[in-house]
Amino acid sequence: MSDHRVRKDGNVGPVDGSQVPRYAGDSTFARLPRIDEVDRADVAIVGVPFDSGVSYRPGARFGPAAVRQASRLLRPYDPAFRAGPFLEQQVVDAGDIVCTPFDITKAVGQIEEAATELSDGGSTKLLTIGGDHTIALPLLRTVHRVHGPVALIHFDAHLDTWDTYFEAEYTHGTPFRRAFEEGLLAEGRSCHVGTRGSLYSPDDLLEDSDMGFRHFTSNMVGTEGVEKVMAAVRERVGNLPVYVSIDIDVLDPAHAPGTGTPEAGGLTSRELLAMLRELIPNEVVGADVVEVAPAYDHAETTSVAAAHVAYAI
Amino acid sequence: MSDHRVRKDGNVGPVDGSQVPRYAGDSTFARLPRIDEVDRADVAIVGVPFDSGVSYRPGARFGPAAVRQASRLLRPYDPAFRAGPFLEQQVVDAGDIVCTPFDITKAVGQIEEAATELSDGGSTKLLTIGGDHTIALPLLRTVHRVHGPVALIHFDAHLDTWDTYFEAEYTHGTPFRRAFEEGLLAEGRSCHVGTRGSLYSPDDLLEDSDMGFRHFTSNMVGTEGVEKVMAAVRERVGNLPVYVSIDIDVLDPAHAPGTGTPEAGGLTSRELLAMLRELIPNEVVGADVVEVAPAYDHAETTSVAAAHVAYAI
Amino acid sequence: MSDHRVRKDGNVGPVDGSQVPRYAGDSTFARLPRIDEVDRADVAIVGVPFDSGVSYRPGARFGPAAVRQASRLLRPYDPAFRAGPFLEQQVVDAGDIVCTPFDITKAVGQIEEAATELSDGGSTKLLTIGGDHTIALPLLRTVHRVHGPVALIHFDAHLDTWDTYFEAEYTHGTPFRRAFEEGLLAEGRSCHVGTRGSLYSPDDLLEDSDMGFRHFTSNMVGTEGVEKVMAAVRERVGNLPVYVSIDIDVLDPAHAPGTGTPEAGGLTSRELLAMLRELIPNEVVGADVVEVAPAYDHAETTSVAAAHVAYAI
Amino acid sequence: MSDHRVRKDGNVGPVDGSQVPRYAGDSTFARLPRIDEVDRADVAIVGVPFDSGVSYRPGARFGPAAVRQASRLLRPYDPAFRAGPFLEQQVVDAGDIVCTPFDITKAVGQIEEAATELSDGGSTKLLTIGGDHTIALPLLRTVHRVHGPVALIHFDAHLDTWDTYFEAEYTHGTPFRRAFEEGLLAEGRSCHVGTRGSLYSPDDLLEDSDMGFRHFTSNMVGTEGVEKVMAAVRERVGNLPVYVSIDIDVLDPAHAPGTGTPEAGGLTSRELLAMLRELIPNEVVGADVVEVAPAYDHAETTSVAAAHVAYAI
Amino acid sequence: MSDHRVRKDGNVGPVDGSQVPRYAGDSTFARLPRIDEVDRADVAIVGVPFDSGVSYRPGARFGPAAVRQASRLLRPYDPAFRAGPFLEQQVVDAGDIVCTPFDITKAVGQIEEAATELSDGGSTKLLTIGGDHTIALPLLRTVHRVHGPVALIHFDAHLDTWDTYFEAEYTHGTPFRRAFEEGLLAEGRSCHVGTRGSLYSPDDLLEDSDMGFRHFTSNMVGTEGVEKVMAAVRERVGNLPVYVSIDIDVLDPAHAPGTGTPEAGGLTSRELLAMLRELIPNEVVGADVVEVAPAYDHAETTSVAAAHVAYAI
Amino acid sequence: MSDHRVRKDGNVGPVDGSQVPRYAGDSTFARLPRIDEVDRADVAIVGVPFDSGVSYRPGARFGPAAVRQASRLLRPYDPAFRAGPFLEQQVVDAGDIVCTPFDITKAVGQIEEAATELSDGGSTKLLTIGGDHTIALPLLRTVHRVHGPVALIHFDAHLDTWDTYFEAEYTHGTPFRRAFEEGLLAEGRSCHVGTRGSLYSPDDLLEDSDMGFRHFTSNMVGTEGVEKVMAAVRERVGNLPVYVSIDIDVLDPAHAPGTGTPEAGGLTSRELLAMLRELIPNEVVGADVVEVAPAYDHAETTSVAAAHVAYAI
Fold first, then answer.
1. In A88, A277, C82, D73, which residue has its Cα 20 to 30 A from D273's Cα atom?
2. What is the pTM of this model?
3. How high is the pLDDT of residue B1?
4. Contact (CB, 8 A) for D264 and A269
């Protein structure tokens, strides 16, 4: 193990950027220790390089590698929180979950199994880097095993509560309908934030509403402000355990060009980061950042944003 | 004709994205029917691949193809309007107007002739995808034949009311001065929105004002908000027939890098889309979206924005 | 139907590039007529936007659209052949075959069914634009129905005769083993051209040889020359009906960056075009050009090469 | 000297864009005269192509050339100021300061010497285009020789008041600590604007504060608005001579991808330009725009923003 | 004038790259002196930023700036020639010829006039950087005034001897037919080198042959080698004064992606450079390098090649 | 340690690509084990992310990460050698050598020290991924400690035997002059391969020759062929221990755009790979692949080539 890692209270932090240049050395998330370098993990960052569930631009299978690369720029102390998230608790990089690209149902099973093993009965919280949004379903199942139904805060341009797509049940447009059907979500406590764009039909919104979701559009964030929207979000989730799922396309294509189904009119990265800072960390029992498609990214704009977003969680 | 098209009230809509993947099949705007597939058109989307009038970066000749490609992501129902613009009326893709790249005056004539034929005495409204801003002049002439002088709402970083450029009368910097001189615009009812950047001299603004234009700068949109500016715009145009001309460079280069004369400090795509939703659709008798130069675009950021903008109109 | 199309002997050719600029108008392959615009087709160009069988970089689902876009530069007369391939016979663009991205086996069936219908008992030859190499299997099945076992000339950096990959039988690395097992290939008459790069094990080559393939490496083309290699290829296929399958990664990444599994040390586009000109066209009963992944392309380098390659066939 | 230059009151302005296309001719900043073409300079634009002090992505050595190229789009009259900055005073392009890339300490000396000679005892104000932020130190020394301690307004995502980095004293992360130590800054009158992102430790902020800096975060600009923040900035600097140092990474990566250490959550270009317009020009005795790294830029987005920023100063 | 320029025999050469970094300082071609810095010029490099004659991708108006930028890498001594082309004779950068983008005929006149003035009765040879191929016509007229009919060696993927295009006589596809008609070319002494790709009809070649051109295809260079082809070329031109016109698309798109009408199967840069070295310099009375379109270039691949090509001439 | 690694004869090979997708998992070179995962290393791949010695485009500090990423495509068996280089001997990834970017002399010392420790008295051969060419000097010193003076085979567009550059002794243009002066090279046994391009003066070649180098130009490879040139190279090095240093710019910019000082007219990747296969592996005692600058790369073209090159060694 590198002897350049910052330590505090027995926790092993990132490699010190003033000792080892940030473009050198291991490519773990934020230069954190690998899971096999420490004996305990409060939070594990794990990649799920899977994009067989996408309906438009593929490529999110390269998301975990790109976000890790961009995360080299993160430093250990976050002045916005007055906290050093990597030193107050043991955070590790757990590598990638291996799953087949050729069979979606099988892959969903592989992800659930690996995530469940990794979460170790809930003693390790998972922050997952996707991958496409299909992966949220097995991750919610994993969380549900420990915590029961959770409140979902879902940042996305899209609803992702469609039913099927070419008769397929498991795709990146359907995870939250499946989660609802499987009882993984607490009733009436979930919401979408940042939605916008066109739909297939007016029924899309009705059905979404019937499943108990509320949505706060991107426009609402622009006109009413971050604080007001997040107050409503917090009120909705109450004191339930919370799962945060962030499709990077919640950002405007200017801030996140590297994604599969871009929609104009999105959030700025400043807005999204400010919203995440309004969350109450203790209640977050799992999170994902998905749909980073590096082939469409430029100058790491998208993956830098995703890395900051993951850091803010 | 594809049997996968959505239909309602006798209108033929886009190909159904849950039956035919959005990356497959015809490349008409928003996967709408071609004009020869239906017997009537309320609105025709038409491309004008022409960029011989540009003063800096050329390439808008590839704009129509790029915007059509990006428009594959549009779905038929717009929740922001609570309407399905493609089903309430018959919207078609009328292909491209053919004009020479080697003689601007001749091309302006070709565009006017083709647009006039297509608009069919006003029974078909045209939404034109440019091409450079030179094309607004023949399109305004076409509209004028049916409606007489119109109110112009012009979204742009620039005024486009210069006189001549290298002695040339018809360029992308001069259409609205020509339109004023030809009496195509109703007196004192037009405005520029989103202007910013440096000018050749203080006379530019004086002359613009003498032609009866008002302008609402990009900064004004930022400090006073979308609603207030659009209220002033609506008051100015009154109940006249309105022509909406959108130079995509009204957006900030972050949101629209793929354009010919980028100016920092522009609108966000969220602001522009919100402003367009404040327009009263019935009074819009024609519109264009111009200056998309795909060679400078990245990950379709600009053409996705342009496609959403065209959709919002 | 556009009245700008070139005609000869009753055949309808491409739109005339000196009447309609090549950046304007329909986006069919080489600006040929759509299949519904003529009453007969000797050759049909058809896209198969499918890439769920790839093992590394996805994105070939956008291949058909990109190759069509790049094919606008093709003109009707080929001096290297002293022939106008689009006027001697009726060539059409048959659009895209629709297949699901979410279930490989089902998609393979959909492709076979659509290709069989399109080939119309063999009276229409298909030139397919992929899509990933998985699609060669259903296309060979289609050809086999009419012609029985064929000789395969396979241009590729890779063998594509692996057995399974993550237990999946149908992927872009396995079509020719499946074709061999299904008896679609004439015994001992097929070959790979342009292979290079590392393998999983020495067994890969042995098994390939056991299936009756010969291979001519990229290096061999460089040292022995195009003519000598092609003489050997022609001798091998004899007078059997020939299916030509071209993975664009047979070209060096310099010539084809936009592909899924690039290997250094490949052919130049001049070499590949020269080799294709050495084929005897009458005996080619089907062909495909696959693995163009536009997200990794630059300045259409790859898709221009692919368009020329398709034209040369 | 070109006879197409605009002139007024004896001052020589830029080449006239309606006489010489803006893509043609000399590549001086904003097409201004070179310093050897006029006999006097009130303001000199000077490039410092130096990036040996960077800790992450290098490439700012190409910044001066890129910003000059992008500055071709600037026109002589700025309506936001109701002024023509290039005609009220003699502004020139003084070319690049030559310094070694291989020895930071020597380069810092070369920059100081050349800048001092160029400023000619203060009669010529310098607007410097970097280059990395290391160069701010010798430029502050130059200003200090004439004006004594100055107030610094520092736009940046980062503090740039670290102590050493790999034991090196002069880097792009340390110029303002060195400036403080050398007494170049007036006590308690300087500030950072636009800061955000993670730090090495909580001490970073404490030490910064001990050196007498105040900081206005990017978030503050978003929630409190440009005017309020700039009022506080102006109050802080009082009537002291002001040096303005702008790291282009103060902008969000969406607006400035082409930079060395991007941080999500930054300012928009509209905000930054509005803030610069709130400065009182007479009191600005020197300025720099640094950290433009063109290799990571796209469609000149970053360099266009930097050119406008330099213009606004 | 910079005192870092290399000098010999009274000639002023480039700025010394070991004194001034090659990324710093003036952006003249190969860092040569500007024409106003010396009192005599044997050879003048001049840019013609004009691209209004293109039929597909525009953007060559930015060619001169890009080639100058890439030419910073050239050093004064060429070992392949055992000569220092910039020291044996006085070579200068004469800046750009100004011409309107809005009227091709007028621009052709402006180019002819400026080139004639610059060539100073033949005492200064011109090496022109385009711009599109339209400009070859006025440049040939200029050469003809001094030397009478010349032999043309034309490197290009295309013939450029079409008649009209959309009724326009002066375009990038027609200069050499116009030159033939105007008697600028010596009878039966000209040739095309590197041609390939498809044509509009078999007549294209017949007409070309009737005008007295011979052509050496790209394939011929590949199979017969550089020396043999160039021997035939030299035999053809005999001892006539020679004009060399190089369309950068003679290179394969792998070597020159940044051009307007790319054709696969082209020359390598090594082949082109070797061919140019086989020319006899004294007999070359003028030359151009055209069709560099930087917006489609990557990492300056095309403009570096063009700079080397210009250097080799 | 991953249990998906291929093993043979006690050696631990790469992760099996048919078990773990090649876009998933650890980012070691070719997915080899890390040095701390095995107890012995015959060959160690080590990165040196250092680029402070470059004279033009920087960015090679990101070379090791990019080459590792591209090396994921390598498979364990090389049919061209009929060998599996990763199974016949224990090959490991030793991570990156840490050195300061701010002081070249200090960094050269840090590299020498770390490399010497890693090579473990010669029992571990090093294959180094740069970084710029400055690093060849400390690596040659390391090899010299064990083997005494070696024969150098240097693939490069440039000689890299300049004396000083801005008075600096240690830069990417000077390592082999320093090596000569320090006696690290066997007399008259070294050579450059692939050189081309312009020089500062004829003295460059004379001095190079005086130091006992021979050079085989890129042109020579093209006209005489790989085999003949390599026979001459092998004759020159005799049976001495050989150090192979490969500047990726020996490839043509078409094959390696992502490098610092591109020169047109270079080798193809097929030629370079064929030349490396002609080396006698046992006699190679060390090697480097340098000057991969990913910011200028496209679609990993350069880093894929570099990965294959490293593999071939």
1. A277
2. 0.95
3. 44
4. yes
